[in-house]
């Protein structure tokens, strides 16, 4: 086996194939989280400032069509910020279930091996149970971290929605003054 696959082999030995799936889900979850941080810090702020500038340059700020256009622009921008949130929530919800699946399959493997060897060694059974519960621990740990990030992202989206409306209103006041 190549050297770069040894950590994967150790992961499978420690908790089974489900632990590898949890690791892949965790990588996807944290990649999406990093992409959101990158989007918020770079792309969103540039787009928000361009939107505020475009709104301030308009001559009409009071008509129904102008207010509707402002609402559509702000909803579109906040929607772009919110876009991966359902996927993040799905991955967070999936992690504990995968952990439970790993525990159940691990326990079945432990009981099968105990039945085949026809020994009732408590030490072997305890080792097998400990190995079987490792996917649950990993799934819960990834879910807790993902839940914290998802909650923080929702808070940021609500705050940015309000700030965007405030900045658009202030931009009109500053151009009128």
Fold topology:
Layout lengths: L5 H10 L1 H41 L6 H19 L2 H33 L4 H55 L1
Helix pairs in contact: 1-2, 2-3, 2-4, 2-5, 3-5, 4-5
Describe this structure in words.
Helix content is 89%, strand content 0%. It has five helices and no strands. Helix 2 (17-57) packs parallel to helix 5 (122-176) and helix 4 runs antiparallel to helix 5.
Low-confidence stretches: none
**Individual helix count:** 5
Structural class: mainly alpha
Report the sheet-strand fraction: under 5%
Tell me the quaternary state.
single chain
Distance between the termini: 72 Å
Q: If you compute it from the alpha carbons, what radius of gyration comes out, rounded to the nearest whole angstrom?
A: 25 Å
Largest sheet: number of strands, sense, barrel closure: none
Give me the count of strands. 0
> How would the global form be characterised?
rod-shaped
Q: What fraction, in percent, of the residue positions are helical?
A: over 70%
Order of helices and strands: HHHHH
Mean pLDDT over the residues: 88
């Amino acid at each position: 086996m190549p050297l770069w696959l040894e950590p994967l082999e150790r992961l499978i030995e420690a908790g089974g194939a489900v632990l590898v799936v949890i690791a892949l889900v965790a990588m996807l979850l944290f990649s999406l989280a990093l992409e959101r941080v990158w989007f918020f810090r770079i792309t969103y702020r540039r787009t928000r400032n361009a939107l505020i500038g475009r709104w301030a340059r308009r001559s009409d700020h009071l008509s129904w069509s102008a207010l509707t256009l402002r609402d559509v622009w702000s909803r579109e921008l906040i929607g772009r910020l919110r876009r991966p949130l359902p996927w993040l929530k799905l991955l967070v919800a999936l992690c504990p279930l995968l952990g439970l699946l790993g525990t159940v399959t691990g326990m079945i493997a432990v009981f099968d091996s105990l039945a085949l060897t026809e020994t009732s060694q408590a030490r072997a059974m305890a080792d097998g149970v400990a190995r079987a519960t490792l996917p649950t621990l990993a799934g819960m740990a990834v879910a807790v971290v993902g839940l914290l990030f998802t909650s923080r992202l929702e808070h940021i989206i609500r705050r940015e929605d309000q700030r965007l409306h405030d900045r658009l209103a202030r931009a009109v006041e500053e151009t009128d003054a």
